[in-house]
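help with this:

***
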Amino acid sequence: MQKTFKSLSYTQALEELLANATAPATSLSIPLDSAGGRVLNEDLISTANVPNANNSAMDGYAICAAAGTSSIPPATYTVMGKTLAGDKCAPQLQPGHALRIFTGASIPPGTTAVAMQEECEEIFQNGIEFINVFSPLKEGSNIRLKGEDVKCGDKILSKGQQLRPQDIAALASSGRDQVSTFAPLKVALVSTGNELVRPPHPLKEGQIYDSNHYLLHALLSTLPVEIIDLGILPDDTLVTQKALEKAAEECDLVLSSGGAGQGEADLIGHVVQTLGSAQFWELAIKPGRPFMHGRIGNCDFLGLPGNPVAAMVSFLSFARPFILKRSGVEEVSPTAHRVPAAFNWSRKRTGRREFLRGRLSIQSNGQTQVEKYKNDGSALISSLTYASGLIIIDEQTSQIHEGDLIEFIPFSAYGF
């Protein structure tokens, strides 16, 4: 079957791809301990105030100043006892009295402020403890108010958020131990080609190691998916067809590298087109021009280019946002930062978006700039290990001079 190719800009390709990404319908209620990285399928409303009572922000003394005092001058107070976090709330304080209090302990009624222990001096006279508070205080100092962090009824998190460690903490602080999330996508990862072998097998003549498998597996591990390794498929139509038919029955997505182009040896694209449907794109980007999106039944298929740098750029630019949207995530694109360039660069032809490998560095003048790897080849894994992110050159830019502000997306924005 003849393959037809569609030429698309970066923006057109991403928009078309995301338009075909449907979120999963299945939801799971899971324990908080297992919820990191999962995607919420509902807005979460707090069922408790956080904190649930007024409490002390530090170790010190709860003091009761004269009524109506908003500015509390240095003074001496009689200490009536102490209270720790977890104790029942102490009885009401009377003017001129204080209570030794520790961080997190409930504030007794009548408390005007909490004086830091570093600003107090203990005095014992006739078996009675006093404190001299030698710094002025404002009413309410060092008191965390009930509901100050989160009020009962507040929305804590929104549907479509991928849960981070701090989100898990927020849910736990409101008393939740379970959370409803979208079911993780099942992603089948496949390599193709007679020339590929996996370490530690020794290489024979004409063979190379399947580094893309490990690259893509690690990238997928940052996403809310279940990874299924289909191994290396030989250049055999029948074997490939049977493997993809089985994967399509069991998985939500098949991801491959290599075979997205129009060459005679790009076997997997022909098989996908035979089993279902496939679109072959020639993208106006560098690296990563060939890209394939197809479907076999209800299973999506994404074909990335085979060169490692191109595979990584295509994954981050297209496969990652597609997978995130299919996982139910609302915000799928990372934020680019404007950073001064530490290099000069030019090209003869505009009209395509380029992704250079770069890393941030602090110059002798103290300014943070982004440096570019010495070589732009799409097969150089060394450029990826050198880099801390991607430099984005838009379609219209033909030259960059040192000091120009350019777009830079750190790899940390992609979750690694």
Remarks:
- The mean pLDDT is 93.
- Residues 241 and 416 are 34 Å apart (CA to CA).
- The radius of gyration is 30 Å.
- DSSP finds seven helices and 31 strands in the chain.
